[in-house]
Amino acid sequence: MQKAPVLAERRGRLARFFPILLCWSLLVVAVAAFVSPPQATSAQQAPLQKSSHQRKKLPKPRQLDAGVTWHRDPATGELITPVTDAANGASPAPRSPAAAIRVTSQIVPITCSIFNSDGTAITDLKRSDFRIYEDGVEQQIAYFATGTEPASVALVIDASPSVLRDSDEMKRAALALVEGLAAVDQVAVVDFSAHTYLQTDFASDRELIRRGIDRVDVHQLLGDVGGSNIYQAVYLTAAKVFLGGREGRKAIVLLTDGQDSGLGLTLDPATAVPRPGQPNNRLTFEDLARSLAAADIQIFAVSTENRPKIMTPEWLASHQDGTLLVSDAPKSGVPAYTLYLAELVRRSGGQLYFLRDSTTLTDIFRRIAQRIGAEYTLGYYPEASPANHAGWHRLRVEIISHPGATIIHRAAYYVPALVQ
User: Fold this and answer.
1) pLDDT tens digits for 312-323?
2) Would strands 351-354 and 297-303 be described as parallel, antiparallel, or unpaired?
3) What is the mean pLDDT of the chain?
């Protein structure tokens, strides 16, 4: 009978201590929550872990012309560019990039853009809508792809002192181009002054590409004296950055004022080819045109200069099938460096734009991205054997379903002679 009072007393003591214990428990929980943040679920942790791994390290710029020596094969006339091994000074056996491309695949690719009369792209064509002609002879189409296939686009940005005032706008426009391309497209970033530098190799990682563009800085190359080697930069990009069996649509987007000091080009056609009896172990305009034609690389050039009055889109279209480098070219009043830029674009099936037009540079780059996204790639196997097929061959593409359509493609392709 005495147990009841004892139990009652114990219950009273617990009742008095319970609030104190509760307060201490809540305090411990609060401190633990503050010191150790709540654990995320596995689904929440995944994006955090992924983002930390996605930020790849930007590689150091690579000088593309380091160790390059120009050499012309005396038997074939082809320019070959062996690269000296900086470690031991030895040079590997000479190799022609263009010949390597031909050996890898004998198919002739043709990248085409098709437009209605109002300038809108025609994007619903089929293989049966196309006809291909080589030197006037119809060829059987063996390959057909639309703009949904991945493209490889190299941004080649002039970083010489002459474009200093436009450098910030050029970088903004380059970013707009990257944003306008399809997610599967791969982009490389190259800049140049006297020398040529690969900032980022081909990649689809947009953050990596943006950081590569951001690293292009004219001020860093102000000490890179020796002129502005525009055509050498384009040649090295085609020969080294695109080298390695890249397939599908290939384009170089070139931002420059066009004033090249490396080749010494004038409106005298003799400056575009090696002169007889003179040392010819140097890059020429014709070498560049051949390398682009052999690899089917389009050039989209954006000049920071004013558009010459005569050089309207209609005027350029009227010269689509004939060279702009003719003897009476000086009468046009167009600077020689602009004519050479236009000729390079014409031969590659690309397009020439001018920064000082009414549109902005960012708009131009968005249009370039849209055009690349709406292109077709055709391919055929030439009937002639490689041994007797060396040289230039004219190309023509027709659309039988749209007789009035405007068709833009490279005017010819080049087969290098066999290098012994």
Assistant:
1) 877 887 777 778
2) parallel
3) 76
